[in-house]
Fold this protein.
Amino acid sequence: MNLTELGVSPEDECLYRQLLKTPAADSPDLTASAMGRLVAIGLATLDSQGNIRAAPPQQTLERLAQRRIDEILGDLQRVFAAKTGLDGSPSGPEAIYGEPAVNDRIMEELWLRPAGEVRSVKGPVPVKPSVRGENLQRATLFRLRQGVRYRTIVHRNQLDFPERADYYRQMHHAGDICRVTNDRIQPMKLLDRTRAFIPIAEDDAGAGAFLLDDPTTVSTLVDLFDRVWDGAIDLHRHINVLPSETDRQILAMLQQTPKDEVAARQLKMSVRTFRRHVSELMTRTGAANRFQLALISKEQGWL
């Protein structure tokens, strides 16, 4: 995916890619005006000395993706408001009021036009908790047995509630593959690349949802889902990844010094043992490198 698909101009995308490879001082095209634009849209940051640095690609993609979702949702709300008829009935994106009605409509869509894959995003626990759709859950289990692929992204704070955590464990075990993220994400349900359900109010699941079938909009939401999915952690790995006190000490040392020898000496262990612990932490968290391990540790609130 090009960044232009997420609202970045081709010129700014080119400058960002250049900055990832070359220091700003060696980039003649990076004028003060250009640097200001990159910082304003989150593609770069300024340190305390005023030096510009490219923002990490994964964080950049997630931030731009979320901004694009917010823009789409805002556009939908404006279109809905603008196209409401004189009798109060809407035209355009279909609005479904009340969570039970939304669950019924999802089941109806799946019966009328079966989907090969269902993607879901469960955001942070809202102010007004959602209603558990028992019929929808049974329908999900039925379709899993029929071979339909289900993937769900769950915000980490959902797992702070035992009943919700147990529910996601059960569904994960049944075949609805769950991953966990600490990022702010837009709740949604996507049926293939053809239909999307987006909440009318993000903090009130009971308010209802918009049903969208515009191919371009739905395809964009699917691409954004897949971006967040790639950076999320498997549910079982997340649950079993709680760090010990030694793990926390090692993670702290990784933040304090880049030299393994210094870190190992302060923790009174051999360099070999220190590196083995680091390797185990990377395996348990799914981190590809030490930088990503540090990001995951901060996201999980371990440091």
Notes: Residues 193 and 222 are 7 Å apart (CA to CA). The longest strand covers residues 149-155. DSSP finds twelve helices and ten strands in the chain.
